[in-house]
Design a protein that fits this description.
Distance between the termini: 33 Å
Largest sheet: 4 strands, antiparallel
Helix content: under 10%
Low-confidence stretches: 197-202
Shape: globular
Strand order of the largest sheet: 1-2-3-4
Strand content: 35-45%
Number of strands: 16
Mean pLDDT: 90
């Protein structure tokens, strides 16, 4: 029942979002008038939480321009864009092109909503995929950034994290479960392998 991820929006008071193992995706206000844990703790037993996704809840980001639009999902890349006020949900799962090797998605597939322009959304399989229009269309913007897949019970040779510089638009980093780190300085158009992860740990 642990949290896989936690994030916040810019509402006043702000909301806390989280994806939980076997328990979907939830959000709740940061100020809890019926706190059942004492102090400043928050919990799903307080009755003020709202469920916005099912399955194994994974990463979740809120668009802080309206604090209602959110990006969330479950295991193996099953993400969607939704709105807390209702409306139809939009699937955000990228597809491979005809004739290409099928994409490999990590159990906790990483996503990223750019802080510089929240129309820009990234999701990573063994490749990086980018949208300039909130996920309405998603393009593949990299080749395979892993050492290649290995057969097994779950996909291996997948990207496990993606991050963007808070200071410089378009400066991106991705890491893979087989030890590679790549950098892009142009919002994902080109990528450079900057070495195995173990070489960067000091």
């Amino acid at each position: 029942g642990q949290f896989y991820s936690v994030s916040v929006d810019d509402a006043k008071p702000y909301n806390v979002y989280g994806g939980l193992q076997d328990n979907g995706v939830w959000y709740m206000p940061s100020q809890n008038p019926r706190n059942s844990f004492g102090g400043s703790g928050l919990g799903l037993a307080d009755g003020i939480e709202k469920n916005i996704g099912g399955g194994d809840g994974m990463q979740v980001f809120a668009d802080t321009r309206d604090n209602s639009t959110f990006y969330a999902g479950s295991q193996f890349g099953a993400y969607f864009r939704g709105n807390k006020n209702g409306g139809q949900r939009k699937s955000l799962r990228p597809r491979h092109e005809l004739g290409e090797t099928p994409l490999r998605f990590n159990w906790e597939t990483p996503i990223l909503l750019s802080k510089h322009n929240q129309d820009i959304f990234f999701i990573a399989s063994n490749r990086v995929h980018r949208s300039f229009n909130q996920g309405d269309s998603i393009a593949n913007v990299s080749t395979d950034l892993t050492k290649g897949g290995i057969s097994g019970d779950v996909p291996y040779g997948t990207l496990t994290c993606i991050a963007e510089s808070h200071l410089r638009f378009g400066l991106l980093y991705v890491g893979s479960d087989d030890g590679l780190i790549h950098i892009s300085k142009d919002a994902g158009n080109t990528w450079q392998n900057i070495g195995k992860m173990e070489l960067l740990i000091i």
